[in-house]
Amino acid sequence: MSSSSRFEKILLIDDEEAVRDSYRIIIEDGPYKGVPVAEKLGTLKEALTFSSFGDAAISDYLLKPSNYAGFNGEDLVLGWYKKRFPAILCTRYQSENILDFRTKRRWIPVILEPGQLNADSLAHSIELIRAEFRGQYSPQRRPWRALVTFTNISDDGRNVGAVIPGWSGDEIELVLEKLPSLLAERLRSAFVRGECFRCFAKANLGVEDERDLYLDDWELT
Predict the structure, then answer these.
(1) Which domain of life is it from (predicted)?
(2) CA distances (Å), origin 45, targets 65, 68, 70, 106
(3) Residue 4 DSSP class
(4) Beta strands in 111-186 (DSSP E)
(5) What residues pair up with 175 in beta bridges, in sequence order?
(6) What is the pLDDT of residues 87-136, one digit of tens each?
(7) Which of 35, 132, 136, 156 is least enclosed, having the fewest CB within 10 Å?
(8) What confidence tens digit (pLDDT) does each residue in 57-87 have?
(9) 183: containing domain
(10) 3 within a domain of the structure (yes/no)
(11) Domain end residue (candidates: 134, 167, 187)
(12) Residue 74 — φ and ψ, nearest 5°?
């Protein structure tokens, strides 16, 4: 039996009943009991209290469109992580979601596509998250202090390009409005002057896939 078998009750968060039921069938192939959450989640603060009804959770990304919740799944999973409640984001990882997740990915250890979800992947994911709660990170997830060089801003002013020399020479994109307001202000000022901007942040430099890269804890003095 998996070391995660103590997590018997798994909350299933999705705005579609059919999806919740399909997840229940999949995970109950292992030592788990699926708990589909059919009621509307309300505010994020209200939804975070649902952790009292389970031992871990699986959440979809898009929760707003059907008025199932006033937020999307990444904020729920992030909030639960900070409360030390294991939660997994289960969604089709579209390229347009990458920028939305970049500044939040540190608090979302596991993103699975629906086809990847099964009792074994659930057990592995829960154990990985619990290990992080103990301060034990995988090489791909461990945060390191990293220099970040911001090189340009998009024509519409929404995205900025950056390079992390300690990770790769390839440029990545970040959504300006999702960065701390002070950092965004300094970036705009630097680009108006025609300058690059450099600062330090925490990044998982051992990661291979850009989709799993995170940046957090910006150092702005």
Answers:
(1) Bacteria
(2) 19, 14, 10, 20
(3) T
(4) 111-112, 144-153, 159-164, 168-175
(5) 159
(6) 999 988 665 677 778 889 999 999 999 999 999 999 999 999 999 999 99
(7) 156
(8) 999 999 998 899 999 999 999 999 999 999 9
(9) 144-220
(10) no
(11) 134
(12) -65, -35
